[in-house]
Amino acid sequence: MLAAGLDWSIFLQPSFDQSGNYLTFLLTGLKWTIYLSVTAWVIAFVFGSFVGLLRTLPNSLCVALAAAYVELFRNIPLLVQLFIWYFVFPEIIPVLGTWFKQSVNPLLQQFIAATLCLGFFTSARIAEQVRSGIEAIPKGQRLAGLALGFTLLQTYNLVILPVAYRIIIPTLTSEFLNVVKNSAVASTIGLIELSRQSQQLGEFTSHWYESFIAVTLLYGAINLTVMVLSRYLERFSRLSGYIGGRH
Amino acid sequence: MFEFDWSSIPGALPYLAEGMVRTLQITFIAVLIGIALGTVLATLRLSKSRFLSGVAAAYVTIFRSIPLVMVLLWFYLLVPQLISRIFNRPNLDIRVLASFVAFSAFEASYYAEIIRAGIQSIPKGQFAAGNALGMSGFQTMRLVILPQAFRRMIPLLLTQAVILFQDTSLVYVIGLQDFFGVAYNVGNRDGTLVELLLFAGAVYFVVCFAASNLARYLQKRLAS
Amino acid sequence: MISIKGVSKWYGDFQVLRNCSAEIGKGEVVVICGPSGSGKSTLIKTINGLEAFQEGELVVDGTSLNKRGIDLAKLRSRVGMVFQHFELFPHLNVLRNLTISQCRVLGRGRKEAEENALKLLGMVGLEAYCRKFPAQLSGGQQQRVAIARALSMDPVAMLFDEPTSALDPEMIKEVLDVMVDLAKNGMTMVVVTHEMGFAKQVADRVIFMDHGSILEDKPKEEFFGSSGSERCQQFLSKILAH
After folding, report:
1. What is the pTM of this model?
2. Hey, is the C-beta of A31 within 8 angstroms of any chain C C-beta?
3. If you count DSSP H runs as helices and E runs as strands, how many of each does chain B have, helices first?
4. Could you tell me which chains touch chain C, where touching means 3 or more CB pairs under 8 A?
5. Hey, what domains does chain A have and what are their CATH numbers?
6. CA C170 to the chain's CA centroid
7. What are chain B's domains?
């Protein structure tokens, strides 16, 4: 198998789609993986924060709705969710679905479906983290904010969330890494992200090992970069002398 | 308005059931081997030997930084090569074997971290007590620490199994017909993809929701 | 100033407050004591609406807490509260802890708020610490900052919920000194505490609670005399022996 030796010059050969060589071909995949991960994470962060926050409000309807949201996205496989976003919603949503199928270019269709899918899937996980971050803060902090005359919204904004987000920075960054890994699922609907490109490279050149090794290393490099960045972020945002919930 | 047509589902139930059997097969094998291998990795990780703990850490880090899709593709590439050398049995379905190996190896890295945390949650005094009774380090681990650790970890292990059960749907990328694969194919064949995908989603939801609630219930019972 | 009439509260089936009544006039200092679980913390938190109650009437500075839809935030901004665990905001420095509610609730300008904050920090002897973060201060210092923070809102009354019970013994005095000064300056104060020395020194009245009921409400001379109920005498002898 590997005895045949690896031929790394394959990356300098022109790619089958004439867009450049196979190195730039893989880098296109990297680009889409990053686009997809970043936009999905932003969606996840916004919706996840909102839903996580709802779950901590003193209102049982809010709590129940937020809980249902989390359960829905957590108990259906990501692949099934992706196919539902890509194949089912454009069919069953009137007008908008038809427009989406007919007027949006295919690459963008794949990208939008994958982004929404990953974003909402991850938002349920982030919601749980935001909730646990908020719940890690002593109850007295909320009372202290209210006692000063803050509204509930102000208490969240000025008192609870700034500390809660600091507590969950490590889990939020590891969630970003999860998004990067999960983004590979988008290859199943044909989005030309990293793992899709590696499969195509393998199919067209039969240099499977070179392709898989290169892509695996690229995923590793993304991991490493994000971990280093998050280390800095954690140091930057750390509250001196404050550990976890109690001080 | 879109008109739903659920008529192709009843006739396809036997196929869907076969697919579900395959899904469960992969899940169970990966849970069993994953926990076994994960326990070994966790003990190595906590061992005094720097080399062994480094190897275990590297294994866990590597598998946790690669997408599952890539892991599946890797093993689909590697397993046939290994098989042809070891067994030389051309009639074996490579995809099934590749998925067993891939999920077991992949899950082991996740189980290893759960088990490591479980072992570390056992007070140090328990190790000392085992040693004081004249047990070897291995015996202490097997007879004293692990039984306690596993009891505490059951809910987490189950939660991980639920995630695994969902993840098995990814065998789609190597063309294996599990529950999801069958649903997709039936939908494509009958032009009822929308219905079949929604049906598959509902089935996964019911199973996973029930199992997650069981995990939560166990968690509560263990905590009290 | 504060009028409590027949207030009762339940957690599910469990009654935490039983028909509590008390009147607290302007400039009065009232100490509430009682064994743990007697409902004293709950009672003091009903005064600024941090705890809801199901029965009775509560009027604070002319505002009735019974009416639906009253502006609780506004009421709370006029009643200062000091907590057992200080509850300074860990992500803000001392100065910002004192200015944030002035700016965001009272709408004061930053400069005015800072001047006011520094004046109050000077009063509790911590002006030099204004750039420190809460976790860098001792418990006693944090509690003094917390008192200054409550005062920064120019409250008409101050509520203290066991302000010294989370402190190491050597820090209790510095906090009590600040509270004594406040009392002498005519602040209306409701203080839940076991510090009977403080009560003897500055309280006008002492309230004793047990099992959610107010058992005694007497001027301090009478309270510390020998005429109290048996339950109260028991409690006092335990505290004083302590």
Report:
1. 0.87
2. no
3. 9, 0
4. A
5. 12-237 (1.10.3720.10)
6. 21
7. 10-223 (1.10.3720.10)
